[in-house]
Amino acid sequence: MAYTSAQRRQHIYELQTYLHAIALMNDKIPLIIPDGNYGNETVIAVKAFQREYGLPDTGNTDPATWNKIVSVYRGYLRAKPDPYAVFPSSGYTAAKGDSGQLIYIIQAMLDDISSSYDNAPKITVCGEYNDATEAAVRRFQQWCGIPQSGNVDSGTWNMLVHSCEHIDNMIKK
After folding, report:
1. Rounded CA gap, 126 and 107, in Å?
2. Residues 113 and 62 reside in one and the same domain
3. pTM summary value
């Protein structure tokens, strides 16, 4: 059976996918969007990869280049998890009316706490810092002996993080 153009495109797409993921971890590799075409952007990304990893920078994906790309890609997949710092700064305060990723995480931590303690209010994880979130934050702040502003500053954030870590450690025992 002959190697079809569809198979070729799929293999190129796979190569581009690996290069895309590697570029997320290594800013010396240009970020490309997989499209299944071995165009100029792919050649540039392959050359950058080859230079970075000590291979001849031909822009062609020979067996040595392919094997190294797969090895580097799999290495990133097996690596120790990177910490994810979501709280913007020590001077930042999340408050009612805010929305977004940080608020989802705050609500998820409050939800985790409410799942472990009967007297912790249940809230909906929705990404909107609403009245229920503010009330749950006030209650949490009360338990921790910190000012009950209903806002999440770095002190409240740190208490939330450590409370969730404490809950995780209790579950693991």
Report:
1. 8
2. no
3. 0.68
Whose structure tokens read 């495109």? 9
Domain membership flag for residue 146: yes
Residues facing residue 152 across a β-bridge? 94
Q: Which phi and psi (to 5°) does residue 128 adopt? A: -115, 125
Contact between 65 and 55 (Cβ < 8 Å):
yes
What pLDDT does residue 172 have? 67
Which CATH number covers residue 46?
A: 1.10.101
CA distance 112 to 138: 16
In a domain, 86, yes or no: no
Six token digits for residue 159: 């208490």
Residue 87 has a CB neighbour count (10 Å cut-off) of 17
Range of the domain at 157: 101-172
161 and 128 housed in the same domain: yes
pLDDT band at 173 (very low <50, low <70, confident <90, very high): low
Whether 156 maps to a domain, the answer reads yes
Q: What is the pLDDT of residues 72-126, one digit of tens each?
A: 999 999 999 888 889 989 999 999 999 999 999 999 999 999 988 888 889 999 9
Least confident of 60-64, 73-77, 117-121, 143-147: 117-121
Assess if residue 94 is contained within a domain.
no
* Dist CA 104 CA 127 (whole Å): 4
